[in-house]
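Predict the assembly for these two chains.
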Amino acid sequence: MAYTQILIAGFGGQGVLFAGKVLAYKGLEEDKQISWLPSYGPEMRGGTANCSVIISDTPVGSPIVSEPDILIAMNLPSLDKYENSVVSGGKVFIDSFLIDRKITRTDIEAHYVPATKIAREMGLPTLANMVLLGKVIDKTGAVSKEGLKEALAKTVSAKHPELLEANLKAIQAGMEYEE
Amino acid sequence: MAKVLMKGNEAIAEAAIRAGCRHYFGYPITPQTEVAAYMAKRMPKIGGTFLQAESEISAINMVYGVSSAGLRVMTSSSSPGVSLKQEGISYLAGSDLPALIVNVQRGGPGLGGIQPSQSDYFQATKGGGHGDYHLTVLAPASVQEMADLTVKAFDLADKYRMPAMLLADGTMGQMMEPVELPEDCVHTVEKPWALTGTQGKREHNIINSLYLVPEQLEQKNLERYEKYKTVEQNEVICEEYMLDDADVCVVAFGIAARVSKNAITAARAKGIKAGLIRPVTLWPFPSEIIKKTADKVNGFISVELSMGQMIEDVKLAEECKKPVTLCSRVGGMIPTPEQVLKAIEDMEGGKI
């Protein structure tokens, strides 16, 4: 029975909570048990933000992820803070354009994606979160690749349908990026 | 009906609307502001009233007014704001008025912090304001229960003519989970006592909490406590989890119960028979089941986000039959499953 605990961390404004929502909605579409818990400190753009997502076949206990199976680190302070909390055998996804160090542990799997650079080159500078998420979906199977558009449609504001395609493109770019 | 993903705070607001509440008065405070924000968006569209009062004190007194007119009404806040409302809550209780007060708790005392807490347990369950009174107090442990217990709270308030409190915490308010929103939950109760205008056809009704003749005030209190006895007999709700063969019994509500379930699963994997009693109603408190459980287990652990408040009710309920320990974090911190597991192992190993 799958019980996947995901921690997404970065600066406020990088779309940490949004990336978590996409995973949560995708999980819901797949009839999984879900919890999504944001940090809600006095954070704002530029401060730190993180988000716990649990996707499970069984009821979710505590919604707080303290030992993630999957860590998505979008800035250096987040990697410094959470690298040691990842469970042995877990996976770390790193925006290697913003984080210029490798992981120090040898018992976890790291994926380095220059997500911010890729997003900028695509003309979608705010969607580095989706690029990284694409790699996560590709490498973990936490959620299925099928039906991403439907899940995104529930997350993206109905007022901005053009963002749906942009988000999908960014996810696709992340999936196809060769490390 | 399909499940939707919602924040706990939003689920409260939507469930309240579905339960027929058309009047909301509040004042913003983290971590419950989404309740007010949701109401601000929705109420004008359905002919309801959303009003951001100039203070929490005004908001609770507006609740008093609408309730006097016999309509479903609510307010919501977080710990410091709920302290401000206590005078009004006492007046509601003293006037036998139904209403819903939501407290999405944060760390205290004073202005405290904005992270989750359960340290308003005493305030919620023992009165809070002045005078002898109780609220029915419901403690949700999931976004689904944020919705379901909101409906339940309105029903209990109307049924017994007493204010009800939904006692949540910052985690429950901020987290999203799939929720199936309640339908057909406007349970109308006749309110012949309400101030609806006599139209010259009946004696006028009086809503009041002032009784200057002590014999009359005593009588009012006695009658109210007869009613509370009925509530205690009929309205206790609690969840039992892996309790049947348990040697160690954890008692926890809300987010603490969620963490405890992880710890119990871990304890069972190590061969320790742990179980959980999760009070869903904090008042009336599930004393009877705790008393019965005391004959079967080695001891109790009260897991709380407070310095130990519910533990007093656990001790009263089990009548000193078995040891009761406290496992807690405060100030906005949350116990980890590992911390609860350690407390379970200590009790199992007799290290208490």
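Residues 214-234 of chain B form the longest helix (21 residues). The longest strand of chain B covers residues 99-105.
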